[in-house]
């Protein structure tokens, strides 16, 4: 694990000293947008963009889900990195197809030779301008949701105008307390920072459980972006976050509504295929040697994701 400093790779762990043991996530460095507009620099085109992902990563998982749901698989190709993220950061098992690189940081310096920042997945690459469009998953999924509709013919909308306010509210709540909350637990380096994150996380899961007892989805009667953003954390929770990140007050399996909801989303056609528990468990338990020095990867838990979710009556 490390970062680029003026284009040079340095093997350093997260700095939590300057924040009293708290994990503070760095903002993504590339924030351009693909827009279906005549004057846009990045226009939607079939075959023009390439996506670098890790199957372990909940943020990258969002982009794979949207690529699947929006029928973009034949239009945007993908490189999957190896699950182990060690001293060289994310690496490719085989040279990736665009440049033949085997390290993700080389893709960042292709885009910006003097880049300073963390080298994260997902990365959306533009083959035309030879640069990174975006490495911010929340923005990549918005582009996938709407900007390629004329190419795919798929007009399903996970960020509909009528529900935007609610979706934004849920995102703003779920991101710090749940999506990033599990990392704030796992990467905390003081007891106090950990307990604060743990309390926020489980208060939030209780609130979500109560909401989902009465509502099938987060923002209304249909699945939206807010649900998919929550899903990628929930599906990793019992396999990794409970043990590795010490989020162990309860498992998702112990919350009837959250569990049924998670299973319903997992069972949406195509989603199971984007979920890889080998990569998920291997990445966290093997890569974070500061948390798990033996690098032993647990065999369990046995997860029941295929049984009836029982959410139809809502
Ligand atoms: N804001 C980014 C966060 C992405 C992110 O932090 N990805 C993790 C993997 S789960 C990563 O690549 N971490 C490498 C690092 O921090 O050095 C997004 O949502 O796209």
TrEMBL record:
Any one GO cellular component localisation term in the record: cytoplasm
InterPro entries: Glutathione-S-Trfase_C-like, Glutathione-S-Trfase_C_sf, Glutathione_S-Trfase, Glutathione_S-Trfase_N, GST_Omega-like_C, GST_Omega/GSH, Thioredoxin-like_sf
Residue ranges annotated for the GST C-terminal domain, each copy included: 160-287
Chain positions recorded as glutathione binding sites: 90, 118-121, 136-137
Alphabetic keyword roster: Transferase
GO terms of molecular function: glutathione transferase activity
Active site: 57 (nucleophile), 183 (proton donor/acceptor)
Entry superkingdom: Bacteria
Site (Lowers pKa of active site Cys): 241, 284
Protein name listed in UniProt: Putative glutathione S-transferase
Species assigned in the record: Vibrio brasiliensis LMG 20546
Taxonomic placement: Bacteria, Pseudomonadati, Pseudomonadota, Gammaproteobacteria, Vibrionales
């Amino acid at each position: 694990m490390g970062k680029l400093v003026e284009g040079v790779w340095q093997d350093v762990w997260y700095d939590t000293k300057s924040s009293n043991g708290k994990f503070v996530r760095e903002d993504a460095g590339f924030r351009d947008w693909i827009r279906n507009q005549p004057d846009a620099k990045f226009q939607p085109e079939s075959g023009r963009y390439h996506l670098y992902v890790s199957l372990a990563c909940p943020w990258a998982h969002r982009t794979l889900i949207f690529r699947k749901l929006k029928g973009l698989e034949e239009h945007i190709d993908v490189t999957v990195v190896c699950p182990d993220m060690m001293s060289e950061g994310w690496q490719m098992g085989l040279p990736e197809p665009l440049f033949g690189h085997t390290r993700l940081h080389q893709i960042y310096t292709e885009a910006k030779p003097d880049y300073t920042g963390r080298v994260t997945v997902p990365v959306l690459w533009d083959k035309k301008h030879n640069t990174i469009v975006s490495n911010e998953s929340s923005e990549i999924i918005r582009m996938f949701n709407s900007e390629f509709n004329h190419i795919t013919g798929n007009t399903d909308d996970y960020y509909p105008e009528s529900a935007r306010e609610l979706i934004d509210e849920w995102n703003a709540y779920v991101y710090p307390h749940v999506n990033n909350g599990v990392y704030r637990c796992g990467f905390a380096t003081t007891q106090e920072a950990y307990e604060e994150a743990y309390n926020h996380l489980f208060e939030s899961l209780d609130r979500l459980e109560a909401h989902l007892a009465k509502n099938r989805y987060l923002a209304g009667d249909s699945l939206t972006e807010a649900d998919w953003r929550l899903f990628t954390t929930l599906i990793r929770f019992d396999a990794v976050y409970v043990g590795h990140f010490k989020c162990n007050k309860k498992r998702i399996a112990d919350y009837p509504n959250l569990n049924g909801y998670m299973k319903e989303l997992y069972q949406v056609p195509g989603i199971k295929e984007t979920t890889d528990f080998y990569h998920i468990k291997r990445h966290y338990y093997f890569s974070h040697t500061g948390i798990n020095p033996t690098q032993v990867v647990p065999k369990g838990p046995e997860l029941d994701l295929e049984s009836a979710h029982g959410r139809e009556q809502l």
